């Protein structure tokens, strides 16, 4: 009895990550519609215009602004007046206007949002 060697069948190459993700870069109209806010839907908390207190209005202005823009304007004020501690840039050294908002002489950049939230309605 003669034995014949078994021939190996070529296996299909496994799909690579690049091949799988090639179609992910394209956005469809359906995907775009899912990311856009729908009419009548509640506004995101960061986009909702808020009124600054009189103390905060001295820095950012009296107009209603979203929270993100308030933080941005406060950072612009801090940089313009060179109020960051030169040894530790995370620390903000408050001038007279910022003392009214922060309630203290200095605070860290991480505490700043806590104090700003008390001055936005």
Which tags fit this structure?
single chain, 121 residues, mainly alpha, MDM2, 4 strands, elongated
* Helix proportion: 40-55%
Order of helices and strands: HHEHEHEHEH
CATH superfamily of the domain at 49-117: SWIB/MDM2 domain
| Gyration radius over CA | 28 Å
Shape: elongated
Second CATH tier, the architecture of the domain at 49-117 = Orthogonal Bundle
- Tally of extended strands? 4
Structural class, from secondary structure content?
mainly alpha
The fraction of residues assigned to DSSP E strands is 5-15%
Main sheet: strands, sense, barrel: 2 strands, antiparallel
Number of helices: 6
* Overall mean confidence score, pLDDT: 81
Would you tell me which CATH topology of the domain at 49-117 applies?
MDM2
N-end to C-end Cα span: 93 Å
Descriptive account of the structure:
Helices cover 40% and strands 8% of the residues. The protein has helices spanning 17-21, 29-35, 54-60, 67-80, 96-102, 109-117; strands at 49-50, 65-66, 91-93, 106-108. The strands form two sheets. It has a two-stranded antiparallel sheet with strand order 1-2. Strands 3-4 form a two-stranded antiparallel ribbon. It is mostly helical. The chain has a domain at 49-117: MDM2 (Orthogonal Bundle), CATH 1.10.245.10. The chain starts with 16 loop residues before the first helix and ends with a helix. It has six helices and four strands, in the order ααβαβαβαβα. The model has no long low-confidence stretch (mean pLDDT 81).
């Amino acid at each position: 009895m003669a034995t014949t060697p078994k021939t190996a069948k070529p296996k299909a190459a496994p799909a690579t990550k690049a091949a799988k993700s090639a179609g992910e870069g394209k956005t469809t109209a359906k995907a775009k519609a899912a990311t856009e806010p729908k009419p009548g839907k509640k506004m995101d908390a960061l986009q909702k215009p808020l009124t600054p207190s009189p103390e905060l209005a001295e820095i950012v202005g009296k107009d209603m602004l979203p929270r993100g823009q308030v933080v941005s304007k406060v950072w612009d004020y801090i940089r313009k007046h060179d109020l960051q501690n030169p040894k530790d840039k995370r620390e903000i050294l408050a001038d007279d206007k910022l003392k009214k908002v922060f309630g203290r002489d200095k605070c860290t950049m991480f505490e700043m949002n806590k104090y700003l939230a008390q001055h936005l309605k």
